[in-house]
Amino acid sequence: MSERRTEIIGLESTTVPTPDGAALAVRLLPQADPSAPVVLILPAMAIKAKYYLPLVTALHAVGLTAAVVDLRAQGESKPALGEGPGFGYRELVEVDLPAVADALRERFPQAPLHLFGHSLGGQLALLFAAAEPGRVASITTIGTGSVYWWSFEPRRRLEVLAQGLWVGAVVRLRGRWTGGSGIGPMTGGVMLDWARHLRTGGYRPGGSTRDYDRLLRECALPVLLISLDGDPLGPESTVRFLSNRLRAAKQHRWHIDRTSGLTHIGHASWVKDSELVAPVVGAWITEGRPPS
Predict the structure, then answer these.
(1) What CATH number should be reported for the domain holding residue 252?
(2) Neighbours of 289 (CB within 10 A)
(3) Average pLDDT of the segment spanning 12-20
């Protein structure tokens, strides 16, 4: 690993290589206690890791070692989008996350690893943790619901299905997604996996041999599912649908609305209220205290 200091006191920047030649940029704010729980933040689609630095500092303030990774071809990870080979959910879950988890375990061998995923990052967190039991102590997701069109409110279902069919057709025609419909630029493989999930409700990443639907049903980890009031990308109905698929998980739910004290409740703007989110998540991770 190569490391350098950045503008936040104590924040480290580390590069984690993957077996297939990618280099994932990880920012890390460690506690003095090497056994303090480690929380790895997985970003949403097309959002850079540096966007989550307020959450990193807020989680650190409540006693956790916090890290955030730029997903493959996002932010400072290499190769940049469009410069390397294509990839999809399989590479993100079965290649990249094991490499990052291994690097964190090497750095903090006494510390349990917890995942905090936003939107797509929440999907990846659940799939990875379900497929590799024993590597993760808990999962927190925010703004993460099923993207299956039927999981949306009835009035939006046909609109969502039409969008998914259109995205899939564009990607098959162009070989990539250049951005639009609230989704940033993304490699074709990720968008085809996303569109397949939207159409069918199943997790069947291209090239994978794993039965992720079964693995999710059997995952018995503690899971905190956070929904955001009025979130059009991950409305509460989609979070409930996803929750019902986690049949063996020890689940808690937290629905954030105006009574929660946050003033920023958008799909991504919640990060601006990280100082309010982090204590709730920290208490759940360290004490098992469910959100009130």
Answers:
(1) 3.40.50.1820
(2) 12
(3) 96
